[in-house]
Design a protein that fits this description.
Helices cover 36% and strands 16% of the residues. The protein contains 13 helices and 11 strands. The structure holds pyridoxal-5'-phosphate.
Length: 346
């Protein structure tokens, strides 16, 4: 791996971060707060939230088995994705490499930051080749984007190939594990101690059932986390979000139960899809959704919208011609989808 200084944008490396009123008194027991121009009324929301989200990170450290100083919290994983570009890539100079197809935000953030985005097609089983990926990298490739289980394909990437990419690439590798709670594969987040160039993303938006609160996270070396913390907005996670996260994280067994139910339903819905005349095949999945190849994805999508049922049409995505991406819902929701499809006349 190149040194972190070589990989970081020089202006970010030199940055003096904003120092908030609350940052400066730490270490003392305070009773009266007249430092931040807050109103004394409308408690508790008159006060700025904890800029470093210490209580939430302490809970996450227990739940995820990662130390507090290796956790960054963002306004969704989307904030962490954007921060990777803002910390490490120089527009008009650097580039990033990503598997294709994958989650759309890596490309959107590349475009916003004016960074060249190089796509490397997965094979027909939606697997990556470390060699193919490494071959398109050059001296200005700063980041490789991987997502496992991958969206929209649903499958976990081959672990050996992912490890080879991390070991052989001299820049940063991001492994997005938004769906890892649904997968039997071993998580990559514990590998951050072995690989200083690895950044693992996680989110409260999927298995944890908290898409509305916008809370995503990155796990990485202390040095990378401290760069993210310097560049983020000072109060990027609001107090309502921190409170709800603490509540949900205090009951991980509830989430385990929900994940089990979703996985049971996944088997049932996929089996039923295979019997549908309009379904050509379903692809293996390690997530809370699956990809199904249909006889005419656009027509079926339009038909379902008319029935008030929304799935994701992925027909224009590389390698996903005529594919719909189906999220697993409750038993009742899944039955609605299945009965609508049984009544569909192609
Ligand atoms: C849904 C999803 C996310 C979650 O993004 P948030 O901003 O945390 O809601 C991240 N990565 C992938 C691949 C996803 O599918």
């Amino acid at each position: 791996m190149k040194s972190l200084e070589e990989l970081t944008r020089p202006n970010i490396w030199r940055l003096t971060p904003y120092s908030s009123a609350r940052d400066e008194y730490s270490g003392h027991v305070a009773r009266v707060f007249l430092d931040a121009n807050e109103s004394p009324y409308n408690q508790p929301y008159n006060r700025y939230p904890d800029p470093m989200q210490t209580a939430v990170k302490e809970q996450l450290a227990r739940v995820k088995g990662i130390p507090v100083d290796r956790i960054f919290l963002g306004n969704g994983s989307d904030e962490a994705i954007d921060l990777v570009y803002r910390c490490f890539t120089r527009s008009g100079i650097d580039n990033v490499v990503a598997i294709e197809p994958t989650y759309g935000m890596y490309k959107v953030c590349a475009d916003i930051n004016d960074i060249q985005y190089r796509k490397v097609l997965l094979d027909d089983q939606f697997q990556l080749s470390a060699d193919k990926l490494l071959r398109v990298c050059d001296a200005n490739t700063k980041v490789i984007w991987l997502c496992t289980p991958n969206n929209p394909t649903g499958n976990a990437l081959n672990r050996g190939e992912v490890e080879r990419v991390i070991q052989e690439f001299d820049g940063l590798v991001v492994v997005d594990e938004a769906y890892s709670d649904f997968s039997k594969e071993k998580t990559f987040r514990h590998e951050i101690v072995r690989y200083p160039n690895l950044i693992v993303l996680n989110t409260m938006s999927k298995a944890w059932g908290c898409a509305a609160i916008r809370l995503g996270m990155a796990f990485a070396s202390k040095e990378i986390i401290s760069l993210f913390n310097r560049v983020k907005y000072p109060y990027n996670i609001n107090d309502l979000t921190q409170k709800e996260a603490l509540k949900v994280l205090s009951n991980p067994y509830e989430v385990d139960k929900q994940v089990k139910l979703i996985l049971q339903e996944r088997v049932r819905v996929i089996d039923a899809f295979r019997l549908l005349p309009c379904c050509e095949k379903t692809y293996p999945t390690d997530a809370n959704f699956f990809l199904a190849k249909m006889d005419n994805a656009q027509r079926i999508y339009d038909y379902l919208v008319n029935e008030g049922i929304i799935v994701r049409n992925r027909t224009h995505v590389s390698l996903c011609n005529d594919c719909l991406r189906i999220t697993i819902g409750t038993k009742t929701e899944n039955n609605e989808l299945l009965s609508a499809l049984r009544q569909y006349k192609g």
